[in-house]
Design a protein that fits this description.
Length: 348
C-alpha cells in the first residue's frame, strides 16, 4: 500500500483507534469548536471590513476598518509617506540577497554570504537614515513593523558572531580568555533584558566622551544584541560539546591550525547541531524587540498601543493586539519552519 493510501488509515487509528481515544478525540473536538466558533464569528463573519471611520463599525464583530485606516503606521510608524520607498527598497534588497544565498550553488554560498554581510548592513542604514544624497530621517520617526524587523536583523548581526566567539572563548584552554567569556555570558544572562535596554538608554550617554552621542535606537540594539549573544553562546557551546574530541584531534593530526580546524571542521558541525537552539533564540529576539517600548521606541506593538490613544478610535484594543500578535506569530512560525527545512536538508 502506498504512503498516500495509508495516510487516512493512520489518522483513523490515531484519532479513533480505541473507545478511549475516540472519547478523547470527540471531547477535544468539542472544546476546539467551543473556543473557535465565537472567535471566527468575531474576526470574520460579524466583522466590519469596509468604511472610513469608527462610525462605520456598527456590528458586534471586529472593526478591521481601524487596521485599514492605520495600516501605514503599523508598517512604518511615523516615517514620512513620500520616503517610504526607502524601507521598501531595503526590504527587497535583503529578501533578494537571502534568496540568492539560499538557492545559489554550494560553492558560491560563502562568497555571497560574506558579500551580503559587508554590503547590506551599511546600505540598509543609509537607506533608512538618509544622508549622502538622501533626506535625513531621525530614528524617532521610525516605527511599526519596519522598526521591529530592523532591530531583529541588526541585533542578530551583533548577537550571532559575538555568541560564536564567546562559545569558543568559554571552551578555550587560555584561562584569561575563558574567564572573560564566562563573566560576559553570566552577566548578560543574569540581567533582565528590559533593564539592559533601559540602563543602556540612560547610562551609555554618561560614559561616552563629551560631544559624542549615541542614538537611542542604537543603544537599544546594542543592549539587546549583547543579551541575546550570551544566550546564543550557550546554544553554540552545546553544539561544540556534542562533538567528539576526535574531531579536533584528527584536524590537528592533519596539520590544521586551531582557527582552520575550527572554521572548516568544528564550527560547521557544531552550528548544525545547535541550529534549533539558535533559531529559538532568534525567535526570542524578535519577540523581545517589544521591550524597546520602555525607552519610547515605537515598534509594531508600540505603534499598536499609541494608535489606541486616538480619540477617533477608542475601544479598538482587541483589533490592534490581534493584528500585531498575528504578525509576530507569522514571523516566528516562518522562522521555525525555515529552521526545520534546514535541519531536514542538512540531515540528508
Amino acid at each position: 500500500m502506498s504512503a498516500a493510501a495509508s495516510l487516512p488509515t493512520n489518522w483513523r487509528e490515531r484519532l479513533f483507534g480505541s473507545p478511549t481515544i475516540t472519547v478523547v478525540t470527540l471531547l477535544l473536538a468539542a472544546l476546539i469548536a467551543w473556543i473557535a466558533v465565537p472567535i471566527i464569528r468575531w474576526a470574520l463573519i460579524d466583522a466590519t471590513w469596509s468604511g472610513q471611520t469608527r462610525a462605520d463599525c456598527a456590528g458586534t464583530g471586529a472593526c478591521w476598518v481601524f487596521i485599514k485606516a492605520r495600516f501605514g503606521q503599523f508598517m512604518y510608524g511615523f516615517y514620512p509617506i513620500e520616503e517610504r520607498w526607502r524601507p521598501n527598497l531595503a526590504g527587497i534588497l535583503f529578501a533578494l540577497s537571502g534568496a540568492a544565498i539560499v538557492f545559489a550553488p554550494k560553492r558560491l554560498k560563502l562568497g555571497l554570504g560574506l558579500a551580503a554581510l559587508v554590503i547590506l548592513p551599511p546600505l540598509g542604514i543609509w537607506l533608512l537614515a538618509g544622508g549622502f544624497g538622501l533626506r535625513p530621517i531621525e530614528t524617532r520617526e521610525w516605527g511599526g513593523l519596519m522598526l521591529t524587523v530592523f532591530i531583529s536583523i541588526y541585533a542578530s548581526l551583533i548577537a550571532i558572531p559575538l555568541g560564536i566567539l564567546l562559545a569558543l572563548g568559554r571552551q578555550s584552554e587560555l584561562k584569561v580568555v575563558k574567564l572573560i567569556s564566562v563573566l560576559f555570558i553570566e552577566f548578560w544572562r543574569g540581567v533582565p533584558i528590559i533593564a539592559v535596554i533601559f540602563l543602556a538608554s540612560l547610562l551609555l550617554p554618561l560614559i561616552m566622551p563629551a560631544g559624542i552621542g549615541v542614538d537611542r535606537l542604537a543603544r537599544a540594539v546594542i543592549g539587546l544584541g549583547f543579551c541575546i549573544a550570551a544566550y546564543m553562546a550557550e546554544a553554540v557551546r552545546g553544539g561544540l560539546q556534542a562533538l567528539p574530541r576526535g574531531q579536533r584531534e584528527a584536524a590537528t593530526a592533519l596539520g590544521l591550525s586551531y582557527w582552520k580546524a575550527t572554521w572548516f571542521i568544528i564550527l560547521p558541525q557544531a552550528l548544525r547541531i545547535s541550529l534549533p537552539a539558535i533559531t529559538n533564540e532568534f525567535i526570542a529576539l524578535v519577540k523581545n524587540t517589544t521591550l524597546v517600548l520602555v525607552v519610547s521606541i515605537l515598534d509594531l506593538l508600540g505603534i499598536a498601543q499609541a494608535s489606541l490613544a486616538d480619540p477617533a478610535w477608542v475601544g479598538m484594543n482587541m483589533e490592534a493586539y490581534v493584528f500585531s500578535g498575528a504578525i509576530y506569530w507569522l514571523i516566528c512560525f516562518a522562522l521555525s519552519r525555515w529552521s526545520k527545512s534546514l535541519e531536514t536538508k542538512r540531515g540528508r
